């Protein structure tokens, strides 16, 4: 697919299987995976609780177009971690974001969507737009081919961490939804300023707009995501990728008020008027629900998150140490299990400040060098992340090989 083909410019690896933190390519070479399928597989490979649960469910039936008990357990587990009581399931985070947008537009009667530079919310028309800053006479435009310019015109893009720009965007009274990643993670890593996300939720509420936190990536960094860590009170939370551990799955949580609205506007053919345009035939299928239940209850526990956060700190400290030893004007990204090479002296607060660290040439060179030494590194827009399957030895080998790469780079 076009998107995957652009992730790197070296020859593609073909994979035959894996075990634990390693996968094996078609030539029988074993690599420790620090890309984690772009965070869609943080459980690892081979015989683990998720694989076992999926196998048992597949033997009973993968899809019934009827709910299973697993869906209730998953919803309750998500509610417990986030204090968001009601959940809908989709096939991906992209679809979860799309449905949150549709519900918000219906509730508010507005069309505009506020986004943040450097974001990624899936390959959907409303969010794949650039420009349209508050007060500009030029509307946002599609950022890729094949997208609707009419849909893009409803987007308002502002800098991350900028409450003044958010205030200006909300002042017109035409914003249905503010959609934000708690930390930008598709352009290296940009963490929120203190109180930025809390203020965002307050400001949307005060102006009649709704707020959605896209925790698709940040869910892998914190138990309960940033929502739990910062005690945030959004109107929606959207999830995907790692929740299903490689089995296609998305989800979105909502407040009781929104859930009641959704319940009253079901899309029933025999009703006088059609309801909300949400849902899909394979949404909440039994296979995905079994995977998510095993992930939440057996793998991604609070103790497991604490363990990988410790390993992530070891990774970041090691990167900082190798950078300092070589006198480079860089530093390590760090949050929980996530790290990486920040190619500027200061950590970024906006997408513009993060862009220098997204260096495809350096990333490709590092990935090839490390792959030839048993490490599969992250894509250019991300950074190495510790999974639930990694060990201290895995992290130490990454640091050893990365240090060797820097030595060869200096030559």
TrEMBL record:
Descriptive protein name: Glutamate-1-semialdehyde 2,1-aminomutase
Cofactor(s) annotated in UniProt: pyridoxal 5'-phosphate
Membrane-spanning segments: none
UniProt family annotation: Belongs to the class-III pyridoxal-phosphate-dependent aminotransferase family.
Keyword Cell inner membrane included in the entry's annotation: no
Pfam families: Aminotran_3
Molecular-function GO terms, alphabetical: pyridoxal phosphate binding; transaminase activity
InterPro entries: Aminotrans_3, PyrdxlP-dep_Trfase, PyrdxlP-dep_Trfase_major, PyrdxlP-dep_Trfase_small
Protein keywords: Pyridoxal phosphate
PANTHER family given in the database record: GLUTAMATE-1-SEMIALDEHYDE 2,1-AMINOMUTASE (PTHR43713), GLUTAMATE-1-SEMIALDEHYDE 2,1-AMINOMUTASE 1, CHLOROPLASTIC-RELATED (PTHR43713:SF3)
Domain of life of the native organism: Bacteria
């Amino acid at each position: 697919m076009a998107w995957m083909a652009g992730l790197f410019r070296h020859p593609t690896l073909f994979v035959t299987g894996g075990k634990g933190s390693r996968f094996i390519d078609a030539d029988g070479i074993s690599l420790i995976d620090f890309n984690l399928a772009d965070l869609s597989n943080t459980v690892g490979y081979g015989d683990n609780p998720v694989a076992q649960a999926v196998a048992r469910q597949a033997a009973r039936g993968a899809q019934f177009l009827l709910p299973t008990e697993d869906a209730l357990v998953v919803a309750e587990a998500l509610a417990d971690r986030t204090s968001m009581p009601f959940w809908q399931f989709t096939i991906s985070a992209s679809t979860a974001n799309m449905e949150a947008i549709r519900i918000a537009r219906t509730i508010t009667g507005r069309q505009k969507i506020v986004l943040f530079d450097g974001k990624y919310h899936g390959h959907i028309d409303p969010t794949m737009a650039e420009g349209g800053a508050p007060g500009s006479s030029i509307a946002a435009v599609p950022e890729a081919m094949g997208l609707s310019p009419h849909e893009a015109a409803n987007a308002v893009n502002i800098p991350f961490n900028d409450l003044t720009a958010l205030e200006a965007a909300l002042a017109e009274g035409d914003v249905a939804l503010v959609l934000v990643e708690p930390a930008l993670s598709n352009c290296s890593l940009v963490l929120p300023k203190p109180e930025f996300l809390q203020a965002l939720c307050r400001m949307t509420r005060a102006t009649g707009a709704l707020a959605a936190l896209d925790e698709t990536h940040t869910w892998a960094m914190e138990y309960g995501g940033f929502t739990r860590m910062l005690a945030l009170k959004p109107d929606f939370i959207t999830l995907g990728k790692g929740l299903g551990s490689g089995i296609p799955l998305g989800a979105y949580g909502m407040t009781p008020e929104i859930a009641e609205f959704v319940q009253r506007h079901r899309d029933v053919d025999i009703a006088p008027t059609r309801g909300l345009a949400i849902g899909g035939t394979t949404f909440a299928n039994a296979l995905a629900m079994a995977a998510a239940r095993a992930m939440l209850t057996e793998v991604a526990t609070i103790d497991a998150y604490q363990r990988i956060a410790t390993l992530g700190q070891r990774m970041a400290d090691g990167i900082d140490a190798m950078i300092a030893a070589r006198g480079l004007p860089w530093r390590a990204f760090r949050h929980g299990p996530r790290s990486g090479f920040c190619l500027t002296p200061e950590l970024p607060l906006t997408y513009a400040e993060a862009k220098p660290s997204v260096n495809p040439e350096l990333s490709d060179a590092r990935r090839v060098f490390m792959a030839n030494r048993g490490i599969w590194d992250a894509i250019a827009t991300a950074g190495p992340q510790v999974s639930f399957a990694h060990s201290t030895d895995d992290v130490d080998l990454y640091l050893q090989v990365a240090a060797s790469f820097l030595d060869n780079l200096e030559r």
